[in-house]
Design the sequence.
């Protein structure tokens, strides 16, 4: 953070001609990138454009096939993350590199040198926390933290190493609008202290608000550099995708079906000691309506989704009503038989089995679509179904027999959403349907949800991305500390109001000071 | 009172080989490596220590040789699974079978040999029992795993090798060290049996203790104190059934011999039903190879 003033004219980091190819795909093709001291530099691109590979090369996780890296003008080889850290490069990963079963303090200590980790670490943690407004509790175990809290731990851990270049990979996907503002303050403060920041994102508004330079990647190549403050979202999107920003079409034919999801006074103790108990959740999603649930993860979404999907049946059968049937005690398969479709948050492991092919994954939830006969699988039907999903939802895959793991996040999500949609559900529940998904795939998925609504399906979307909820939903409710606010029509509310409800829950008693009960990212 | 002290001392003696093997394996598993070769490493440790003791007449030299032999077996396992990325389960089973065969082969000429072993229980006071006392109160894996930086790193590697790599640790090196430590401990357990507990060599003399050690680690939910308790429970029941046999019990001796194994597993199963404890303590990457480039 104490950058020598002489370095001001010299780039802190300069990449020239970086190339990296994997079998079948060129991830990076002769990429040049230059980051000045104290600069917040955006790396913009869709999923699969090569951003992550490039960052992994800078951080020493991946070795480039060709190209040079200069650090403060000196030619360097970064063979492993240890080298990168020795140079002063810190990275905050999108999927976090924390140890779940260890405490926050242990996680931080692990990243420091032995001598540093010993003396007054707690004091230094609280100093950095206070200075940059990043509250962390050193004694809590990481698995009990919300995504926003985990991110703060990662940032604090990086800052304790006094980085001179901080790489932030999609940092805002897990934050409330207020927390995003707070993060930007932190980053600006770092910048004013001379730290360079590489900010990876596909969110155009954020990049325009925060960054002064941007390098745009498309299909592994630099498609342009610009000053994002002087660009419009659509001009940035064109550089990024080579096409114009898609807008969802609302038809709203109000063709009502009979599907409906009703939740009545649902209270549920979390089965994880670090989970969030649900308190008197009331919710009605009617045919031809999209209801959104906003909230920072860790506020009861996991428990609510488990109760709704049937993964965790509840004691009171009437607490959950599905198309007129009291479904509280039914399991996931029985609920699906009643016309429920479910897109879980975790694509790999819950939405799809990573090692299995798309055909087999299609079979897992869509087997009611004539794919089995007397207990035997009708492979031709499953294959036809998988191909239909791939075709209709523009899934880029090596074929119907490609392993789910081999697809990019956006393509796998399109496949999972498509698999559920083509089953012709009467109620669809989608959790984080576009998390970490590129613009093109997001637009397609959102459009699919809207089309379902227009066909008379009752749709529930649980998401952390307010932008998405405001785009597709007819009404928005907010979940915070296990309580759900009454849904408000989207045109009668706004981002600020929803953001406030996220941090000041509906109907909650005053703060008790119990740390475990508050997985909220207070602004 | 004196009788009780003797019983306690004998229990310690019967459980100690298991303590060594289980704690060594526990450290290896905490780093994410599942080595099913404990039985083989114990047997090789036992036969090597016995042969060296018999030829040199220095039991401590024998122990050192046994430890080295166990570590060497573990090193071979490490090369297979950590460098060549072979399957850990298959390699571990192979190591056990190899150890059983190898120890029988090289121990053939020593089956009836007599050696002057170590008398571990000359003074029946816990802290004076030479190796046990030191293991427990000075260099114990408890302190090591949970109160030192090195232990923290081991646990971190077992939990998420990718994260550990990302913050600059060499996963392979740490795992090698833990696996070799586990092998050395298994060798020590074997040496203890052959040189101290029953100073003689018979084929397959560990009688499945290596497998019990593996089970102990799992049922102890990777907590050293529980593994220790389980090992001495095993020791206690072993002793009790010997006494029962000696007193001419009506129960067939084969059934009595099963008792230590059954009792240990049952008790540990009962206390390890806590799903949360398992989730918090089980090394998340156990048995999964890690390749930095993936």
Sequence:
């Amino acid at each position: 953070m104490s950058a020598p003033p002489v370095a001001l004219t010299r780039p802190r980091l300069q990449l020239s001609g970086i190339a990296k190819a994997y079998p079948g795909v060129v991830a990076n093709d002769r990429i040049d990138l230059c980051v000045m001291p104290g600069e917040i530099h955006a790396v913009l691109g869709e999923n699969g454009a090569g951003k992550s590979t490039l960052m992994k090369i800078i951080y020493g996780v991946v070795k480039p096939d060709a190209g040079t890296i200069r650090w403060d003008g000196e030619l360097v080889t970064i063979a492993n993350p240890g080298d990168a850290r020795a140079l002063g490069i810190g990275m905050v990963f999108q999927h976090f590199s924390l140890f779940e079963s260890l405490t926050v303090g242990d996680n931080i200590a692990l990243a420091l040198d032995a001598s540093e980790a010993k003396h007054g670490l707690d004091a230094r943690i609280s100093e950095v926390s206070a200075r940059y407004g990043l509250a962390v509790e050193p004694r809590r175990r990481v698995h009990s933290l919300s995504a926003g809290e985990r991110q703060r731990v990662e940032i604090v851990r990086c800052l304790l190493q006094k980085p001179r270049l901080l790489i932030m990979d999609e940092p805002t996907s897990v934050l409330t609008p207020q927390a995003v503002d707070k993060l930007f303050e932190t980053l600006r403060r770092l910048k004013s202290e001379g730290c360079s920041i590489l900010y990876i994102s596909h969110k155009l508004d954020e990049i325009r608000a925060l960054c002064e330079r941007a390098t745009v990647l498309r299909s592994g190549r630099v498609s342009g550099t610009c000053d994002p403050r002087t660009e419009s979202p659509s001009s940035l999107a064109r550089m990024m995708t080579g096409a114009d920003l898609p807008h969802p079409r609302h038809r709203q034919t109000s063709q009502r079906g009979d599907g409906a999801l009703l939740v009545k006074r649902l209270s549920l103790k979390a089965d994880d000691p670090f989970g969030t108990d649900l308190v008197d959740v009331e919710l009605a999603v009617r045919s031809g309506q999209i209801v959104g649930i906003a909230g920072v993860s860790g506020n009861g979404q996991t428990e609510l989704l488990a109760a709704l999907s049937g993964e965790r049946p509840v004691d009171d059968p009437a607490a959950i009503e599905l198309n007129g049937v009291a479904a509280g005690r039914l399991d996931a398969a029985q609920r699906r038989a009643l016309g429920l479709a479910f897109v879980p948050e975790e694509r790999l492991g819950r939405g799809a089995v990573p090692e299995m092919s798309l055909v087999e994954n299609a079979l897992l939830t869509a087997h009611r679509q004539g794919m089995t006969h007397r207990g035997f699988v009708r492979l031709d039907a499953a294959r036809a179904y998988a191909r239909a999903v791939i075709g209709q939802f523009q899934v880029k895959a090596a074929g119907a027999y490609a392993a789910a793991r081999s697809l990019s996040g956006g393509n796998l999500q399109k496949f999972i959403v498509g698999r559920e949609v083509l089953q012709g559900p009467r109620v669809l529940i989608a959790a984080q349907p576009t998390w970490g998904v590129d613009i093109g795939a997001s637009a397609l998925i959102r459009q699919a949800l809207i089309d379902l609504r227009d066909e008379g399906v009752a749709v529930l979307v649980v998401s952390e991305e307010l932008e998405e909820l405001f785009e597709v939903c007819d009404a928005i409710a907010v979940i915070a500390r296990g309580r759900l606010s009454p849904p408000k029509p989207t045109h009668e509310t706004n981002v600020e109001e929803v953001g406030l409800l996220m941090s000041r829950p509906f109907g909650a008693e005053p703060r008790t000071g119990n740390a475990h009960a508050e997985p909220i990212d207070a602004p | 009172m004196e009788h009780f002290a003797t019983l306690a001392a004998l229990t310690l003696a019967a459980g100690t080989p298991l303590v060594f093997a289980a704690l060594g394996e526990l450290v290896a598993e905490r780093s994410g490596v599942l080595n099913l070769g404990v039985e083989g490493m114990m047997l090789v440790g036992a036969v090597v220590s016995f042969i060296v003791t018999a030829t040199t007449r220095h039991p401590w030299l024998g122990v050192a040789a046994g430890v080295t032999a166990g570590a060497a077996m573990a090193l071979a396992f490490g090369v297979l699974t950590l460098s060549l990325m072979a399957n850990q389960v298959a390699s571990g089973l192979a190591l056990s079978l190899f150890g059983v065969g190898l120890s029988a082969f090289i121990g053939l000429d020593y089956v009836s040999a007599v050696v002057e072993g170590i008398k571990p229980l000359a003074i029946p006071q816990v802290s004076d029992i030479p190796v046990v006392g030191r293991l427990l109160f000075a260099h114990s894996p408890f302190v090591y795993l949970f109160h030192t930086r090195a232990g923290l790193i081991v646990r971190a590697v077992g939990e998420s090798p990718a994260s550990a790599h990302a913050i600059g640790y060499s996963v392979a090196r740490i795992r090698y060290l833990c696996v070799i430590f586990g092998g050395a401990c298994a060798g020590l357990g074997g040496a203890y049996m052959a040189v101290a507990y029953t100073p003689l060599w018979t084929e397959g003399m560990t009688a499945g203790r290596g497998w019990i050690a593996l089970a102990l680690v799992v049922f102890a939910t990777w907590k050293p104190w529980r593994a220790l308790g389980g090992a001495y429970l095993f020791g206690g029941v072993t002793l009790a059934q010997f006494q029962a046999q000696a007193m001419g019990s009506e129960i067939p001796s084969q059934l009595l011999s099963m008792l230590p194994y059954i009792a240990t597993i049952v008790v540990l199963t009962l206390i390890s039903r806590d799903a949360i404890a398992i989730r918090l303590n089980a090394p998340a990457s156990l048995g999964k190879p890690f390749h930095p480039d993936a």
Observations:
- The two ends of chain B are 61 Å apart (CA to CA).
